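tokens incoming
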């Protein structure tokens, strides 16, 4: 394994451990939020968290807080997972009713989001 490959393996391995540990500790709350008040979709909630981390990064010197970078990478991976999961809800607004646009396409009846 090259020096570069070792560094990548080390960093990816640490992110992997962090994500699995957090999933064990907090359950699947990032991908299956309880939603008492918020009705936004999993994807929308993750985007808000990602924006929050990006905002924190932009307000401090780069590299000052490695935890923020790790969290950001973690949320981006969760976003990739959320994109692959179909829970029957609109990925934009989190509601459940779709209407047919044509034979192959469905759109959310609330926000018009086209279902993939
Ligand atoms: Zn919608």
């Amino acid at each position: 394994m090259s020096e570069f490959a070792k560094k990548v393996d080390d960093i990816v391995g640490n992110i992997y451990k962090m994500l699995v540990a957090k999933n064990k500790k907090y359950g699947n709350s990032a991908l299956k939020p309880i939603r008492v008040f918020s009705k936004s979709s999993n994807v929308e909630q993750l985007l808000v968290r990602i924006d929050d981390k990006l905002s924190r990064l932009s307000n401090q010197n780069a590299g000052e807080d490695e935890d923020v970078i790790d969290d950001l990478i973690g949320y981006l991976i969760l976003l990739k997972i959320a994109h692959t999961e179909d829970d029957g809800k609109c990925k934009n607004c989190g509601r459940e009713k779709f209407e047919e646009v044509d034979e192959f396409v469905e759109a959310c009846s609330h926000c018009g989001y086209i279902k993939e």
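note: The radius of gyration is 17 Å.
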